[in-house]
Design goal:
The chain has helices spanning about 25, 45-55, 55-60, 75-90, 105, 145-160, 185-190, and strands at about 15, 20, 30-35, 65-70, 95-100, 120-125, 135-140, 165, 175-180, 195-200, 205. About 30% of the residues lie in helices and about 25% in strands. The termini are far apart. Bound molecules: benzoic acid.
Length: about 210
């Protein structure tokens, strides 16, 4: 069955470029990004892996562990990493799952047969410290992902877990946020001492509370 938001991320044991891992143990109580790419030694994937590796300090800052996956075997991942370092100016610094038997791909529904019946699509799962799935993205093979967007969503999830707010369209860290509609004006006044602006009773704006 397809994985949905709020589900517990299925656990698995798999071989990776950093040794065998059991997902929940490897992840611990961190956040995690599990993402698949269609195939090693392909151009868009090469740029994606280099980009994620460059962003590793940003993921670390947010206590997010990153792990990649394709159905290629381990020796292929290992050889390809040399090309990634050479062409992207950055060595891969996170584990890549070698899912040649499609165990994890099937578990996470990463193969969409009407798009391609042998390769994984560009899936992304953001998983929280309680192992709950909080974001699912699926991109086509021809489109490289915007990993800054992923960081933006993680910022939003981490903020809205801690405060009774939601983040508006195109929000980035530091922008004003939306007061949770469930809060009364009185509660909002108590929770947001910087005040809030009421545009409509259901649309109240306040400065980001943790800044
Ligand atoms: C790529 O990464 O460039 C790619 C991979 C599989 C299919 C099409 C493009």
């Amino acid at each position: 069955m397809a994985i949905r938001l709020g589900d517990t991320a299925p656990n698995f044991t798999a071989d990776t470029t950093q040794g065998s891992i059991t997902f929940h143990d490897w992840k611990g109580d961190s956040w995690a990004v599990l993402f698949s790419h269609p195939k090693d030694f392909t151009p868009v994937c090469t740029t994606e892996l280099g980009t994620v590796a460059k962003l590793k300090p940003e993921f670390d800052k947010r206590q997010v562990k990153v792990i990649g996956l394709s159905v290629d075997p381990l020796d292929s991942h290992e050889k390809w990493e040399g090309d990634i370092a050479e062409t992207q100016g950055q060595a891969v610094n996170f584990p890549m799952i070698a899912d040649a038997h499609r165990k994890v791909s099937d578990l996470y529904d990463m193969i969409h047969p009407n798009a391609n019946d042998t390769l994984t699509v560009r899936s992304v799962f953001v998983i929280d410290p309680a192992h709950k799935v909080r974001l699912i993205l699926t991109y086509p093979a021809s489109t490289g992902r915007n990993f800054d967007e992923l960081l933006r969503v993680i910022d939003s999830l981490q903020l809205t877990d801690g405060y009774k707010v939601a983040t508006p369209a195109n929000w980035t860290d530091g922008d004003d946020v939306i007061v949770a509609p469930a809060l009364s004006d009185e509660e909002a006044g108590e929770r947001f001492p910087k005040g809030f602006t009421t545009l409509k009773p259901y649309l109240r704006i306040t400065p980001q509370p943790n800044k």
